[in-house]
Amino acid sequence: MSATRLRLGVNIDHVATVRNARGSAYPDPIRAAKLAEEAGADGITAHLREDRRHISDADIEGLMQALSLPLNFEMAATEEMQAIALRHRPHAVCIVPEKREERTTEGGLEVAGDENRLAHFIAPLRDAGCRVSIFIAADRAQIEAAHRIGAQVIELHTGAYCDLHAEGRMAERDAELARLAEMATFAHGLGLEVHAGHGLTYDTVAPIAALPELVELNIGHFIVGEAIFRGLTPAIHEMRRLMDEARG
Ligand SMILES: CC(=O)[C@@H](O)[C@H](O)COP(=O)(O)O
Ligand SMILES: NCC(=O)COP(=O)(O)O
């Protein structure tokens, strides 16, 4: 399993963050997505937040028109977002939890407590041909619920693992990594396709990339930051190299 090439989805949200900081037309996330494609990305991820703090509706429109790569469209489970997804029919829709006041996505989606609503919410997206993914914590009950509602994919939230690494809390980091590994195996056993992402950096990507059940990583904030120093293409190439090296 680990010999399979791990897909890299490049998240371009924070190109839009820089653009929006000045209300300018640049830097253009669609240009970034095309460059990511040329640099070997396997997909593009964009999160249309309800408050539109980075990616805009026009960005999603532009990405759908300009991209040959699959778009992984991240969104909250709201009627407004469902209508947008059904209009564009992206390759994948990843349902994420959203809190207006959060700085970034703080945890995984609460699926177990909202199964009935979410099952009805994702059914039309699946019927429209989108692969439905659930952004989720490494938690058995949540994964089982994601499976029951008919999601095809889960994306494991690696944010806690990355934060613990950054804070130097290595024993806790390793425990979280072990949880991610165990839950990747568990989800794969249920027949779910397993992705991972959030907060990954050159320092943290290898142990995640080495998990044999994973087929895709979605990485954005660090790559966009690193692009300031080395350019977007080399920043992506280095992430790709580290992922390939971890896979052996
Ligand atoms: C859902 C998730 O983890 C990220 O993909 C998200 O798109 C990042 O966006 P924010 O940085 O706005 O949380
Ligand atoms: N779903 C995670 C993602 O797309 C990228 O998250 P980040 O690397 O921007 O934290």
UniProtKB/TrEMBL annotation:
Reaction(s) this enzyme catalyzes, per UniProt: 3-amino-2-oxopropyl phosphate + 1-deoxy-D-xylulose 5-phosphate = pyridoxine 5'-phosphate + phosphate + 2 H2O + H(+)
Predominant place of localization: cytoplasm
Record-marked site positions (Transition state stabilizer): E155
GO cellular component, one term: cytosol
Biochemical pathway: Cofactor biosynthesis; pyridoxine 5'-phosphate biosynthesis; pyridoxine 5'-phosphate from D-erythrose 4-phosphate: step 5/5
Transmembrane segments: none
Entry keywords, A to Z: Cytoplasm, Pyridoxine biosynthesis, Transferase
Any one GO molecular-function label of the UniProt entry: pyridoxine 5'-phosphate synthase activity
InterPro entries recorded: Aldolase_TIM, PyrdxlP_synth_PdxJ, Pyridoxine-5'_phos_synth
Cellular localisation: Cytoplasm
Top-level lineage group: Bacteria
Record: active site: H47, E74, H198
CDD domains: PNPsynthase
EC number(s) stated in the UniProt entry for this protein: 2.6.99.2
Gene Ontology BP terms: pyridoxine biosynthetic process
Sequence positions that bind 3-amino-2-oxopropyl phosphate: N11, R22, G199, G220, H221
Binding site for 1-deoxy-D-xylulose 5-phosphate: D13, H14, R49, H54, T104
Quaternary organization: Homooctamer; tetramer of dimers.
Described purpose of this protein according to its UniProt entry: Catalyzes the complicated ring closure reaction between the two acyclic compounds 1-deoxy-D-xylulose-5-phosphate (DXP) and 3-amino-2-oxopropyl phosphate (1-amino-acetone-3-phosphate or AAP) to form pyridoxine 5'-phosphate (PNP) and inorganic phosphate.
Assigned protein family: Belongs to the PNP synthase family.
NCBIfam families for the chain: pdxJ, PRK05265.1-2, PRK05265.1-3, PRK05265.1-5
Name of this protein: Pyridoxine 5'-phosphate synthase
